[in-house]
Write a structure and sequence with these properties.
Blueprint: E1 5-6, E2 13-18, H1 25-35, E3 37-39, E4 43-47, E5 51-59, E6 68-73, E7 79-86, E8 94-98, E9 115-118, E10 126-134, E11 138-146, H2 148-183, H3 186-192, H4 195-204, H5 207-211, H6 216-242, H7 245-248, H8 250-266, H9 269-272, H10 275-304, H11 308-331, H12 339-416, H13 422-453, E12 462-463, H14 466-473, H15 475-478, E13 483-490, E14 508-509, H16 511-527, E15 532-541, E16 544-550, H17 584-594, E17 598-605, E18 608-616
Parallel strand pairs: 13-15
Antiparallel strand pairs: 1-11, 2-3, 2-5, 4-11, 5-10, 6-9, 6-11, 7-8, 7-10, 12-14, 15-16, 16-18, 17-18
Helix pairs in contact: 2-3, 2-12, 3-6, 4-6, 6-8, 6-10, 6-11, 8-10, 10-11, 11-12, 12-13, 13-16, 14-16, 16-17
């Protein structure tokens, strides 16, 4: 007794169609008695201008002494008239009228659907009920008779369910829209346009008029008509984008696009009065395109062997399209309405949208990853080409750089054969020593660069005498006739003349590589400054120490600061181009980083540059790299 009684499944009825819509109640009752057809299912007649008349009886036992609430669904019926009288047939007919196009209240309750309260018959065994249903939309009628308490529970649960459903759909649509704008992906745009079927369902379920009472039921009625024409395009767009129909079957994609654009002029059918013809045309086209889509999905799955990504991306649209086609047949009155398929269609829309959106985001992510990889490969190729070009120049510069000190050595050795004055001999020995040191420096840089290129730079870290390394490196300054050195060693507990300190307090570094790194920076200071004092500082601060080299040159052009540490790249000084091949600073920085430190340009002014090594005191204690 507490369960609702549904017209058709629980209450049989007889139905008859009035082609003219002009029959009176008495004439209609007579025609139903003579020509009415018995029915045990939901009334569904499709898009028709005929008026449907229904007649059935409701036994007094169904009331159980309390009024029954008649719930009338769905929300796109224009005019519904309910006539009822006791089964004795002697009393007058009671009339109730509801519908979307009526200005009168929608029923006895403020609810999403019209609800009419029917009092129990006073003495008769039940009621004889006759209904007249007229609509410009699809003729689909679902009636339920409820006990008041059960209806309140049902209404609360149903409203809560749909509130959650449309809230989830709204958030998903908003997320798809944001992602579509950010990622500029057609598939995500098609997912965002799934808001149209959701708005359609919200209107059919009565949420628009119920939530916005100021707009009225008439607005909701015409909104359903507009959305019904647009929904066809939105429900087709996502499936064809999901399987990339544009590239795979261009002619079918063009057919779909043409069908979508057809809905725009068909909007005129609403004010001009041929809506049913327009919806039939669009429904027919949608049905055949949907059939083609389903067939193509099966073909793709069979051809690609049900690949995971392809199958996952198209199974959702396949199910939605199949259920949509069933819904089109229901609205056309070709197959009976089944609530289970309507529920399945609702769930499939949300699940499919989330699935397609997830796969679309995954695809976009993979595309961005491929784009980044292509960009990286293009950059690596450009760097490789530039390195190849610079390498050819490098070989020429190496030959020149090595030839100069070798020529100096050869000339000095030749002159030593005939030299008799000790001052001349010492001078030539000094030039030979300077040329030899230059050759050693060039050779060290080339060897270190080769080890860096092979990615096998091994640090032989041991306790090193930092003062000795600094003194050895600044010897390059003493060979210059135009430069002098100012050396500052702080917090090392020993100076250049004391010969060091106990090994336990010495830094753990690769002394040979550190000497090369510092020598390169000092050599640059000598080459790129015309003369003056070159300041070399070494300080310890806790577990780190710094080495700074400051010159009195003309500085580095601002637009070339970023390239000075790159391999085979050289900046031009204000005093012109100096000999070299762009390895010194590059090698020095890589040595510093191999120790866990850094080499940086700390100051760059028109009166000189300052380069600073920042190094850990125990870079590889215990012999590690």
């Amino acid at each position: 007794m507490a369960a609702p009684l549904w017209l058709g499944s629980d209450i049989p009825y007889r139905v008859w169609s009035d082609p003219t819509g002009r029959l009176s109640l008495r004439e209609a009752v007579s025609e139903i008695a003579r020509h009415g057809k018995p029915a045990r299912e939901v009334l569904s007649r499709g898009y028709t201008h005929e008026v449907a008349w229904l007649r059935f009886t409701l036994a007094a036992d169904a009331f159980d002494g309390a009024p029954l609430w008649l719930e009338i669904k769905p929300n796109f019926l224009d005019d519904i008239r309910v006539y009822y009288r006791p089964l004795t047939g002697s009393g007058p007919w009671h009339q109730r009228r509801v519908g979307d196009t009526l200005a009168a209240p929608r029923g006895d309750l403020d609810y999403r659907f019209p609800v009419l309260k029917i009092a129990p018959p006073p003495s008769a065994p039940g009621y004889e009920i006759v209904m007249r249903v007229a609509t410009t939309s699809s003729l689909l009628l679902r009636l339920g008779f409820w006990q008041p308490e059960e209806f309140m529970i049902h209404a609360t649960r149903s409203s809560a369910y749909y509130a959650f459903y449309f809230g989830l759909a709204g958030l998903s649509t908003l997320l798809a829209l944001v992602l579509a704008i950010l990622l500029r992906n057609r598939l995500l745009w098609s997912v965002a346009f799934m808001a149209i079927p959701y708005a359609m369902m919200a209107s059919i379920e009565g949420f628009v008029a119920w939530s916005l009472p100021g707009l009225g039921i008439l607005f909701q009625h015409y909104l359903i008509s507009v959305l019904a024409l647009l929904m066809s395009a939105s429900l087709l767009w996502m499936p064809v984008e999901a399987i990339d129909l544009r590239d795979r079957v261009p002619w079918l994609y063009r057919t779909f696009v043409g069908t979508c654009f057809l809905c725009l002029p068909l909007m005129l059918s609403i004010p001009l009065g041929f809506y049913s013809q327009a919806i039939r045309l669009q429904t027919t086209l949608h049905f055949f395109i949907g059939i083609l889509f389903l067939m193509y999905c099966l073909r793709v799955w069979g051809k690609e062997g049900f690949r995971t990504l392809s199958f996952a991306l198209s199974i959702g649209p396949f199910i939605v399209t199949a259920l949509t086609l069933y819904g089109l047949l229901v609205l056309a009155g070709r197959v009976p309405f089944k609530i289970v398929f309507y529920r399945a269609w609702q769930y499939s829309l949300v699940v499919n949208m989330l699935l397609v959106m997830g796969v679309a985001v995954y695809q976009v992510r993979m595309q961005y990853r491929e784009a980044r990889e292509k960009k990286r490969l293009a950059r690596d190729l450009m760097i490789e080409r530039e390195a190849s070009f610079n390498q050819r120049q490098f070989m020429g510069m190496v030959a020149h750089e090595f030839r100069t000190p070798l020529a100096v050595t050869s000339g000095c050795l030749e002159n030593l054969r005939y030299a008799t004055d000790m001052a001349q001999i010492r001078q030539r020995h000094s030039r030979i020593e300077r040329a030899n040191d230059r050759l050693i420096q060039l050779t060290d840089n080339c060897l270190v660069d080769a080890r860096l290129d092979a990615e096998n730079l091994h640090l032989d870290c041991r306790p090193a005498d930092l003062a000795e390394i600094v003194n050895s490196a600044v010897a390059l300054i003493h060979f210059s006739d135009h430069h002098s050195c100012r050396l500052e060693l702080e917090h090392l507990a020993y100076g250049a003349a004391q010969g060091g300190m106990p090994s336990g307090e010495r830094p753990w570094i690769d002394a040979a590589l550190m000497r090369i790194a510092l020598s390169n920076v000092i050599d640059n200071a000598v080459k790129y400054s015309a003369g003056g004092i070159i300041r070399v500082e070494c300080r310890r601060a806790g577990e780190r120490f710094t080495l700074a080299v400051e010159d009195r040159g003309g500085g580095i052009p601002v637009n070339q600061v970023d390239i000075i540490f790159e391999r085979y790249r050289r900046a031009e000084s204000s005093t012109g181009t100096r000999p070299g091949f762009g390895l010194g600073l590059h090698v020095s920085r890589q040595i510093a980083r191999a120790h866990g430190g850094e080499l940086a340009l700390a100051a760059n002014t028109s009166t000189g540059c300052r380069f600073v090594f920042t190094m850990p005191w125990n870079a590889g204690k215990g012999g590690g790299e």
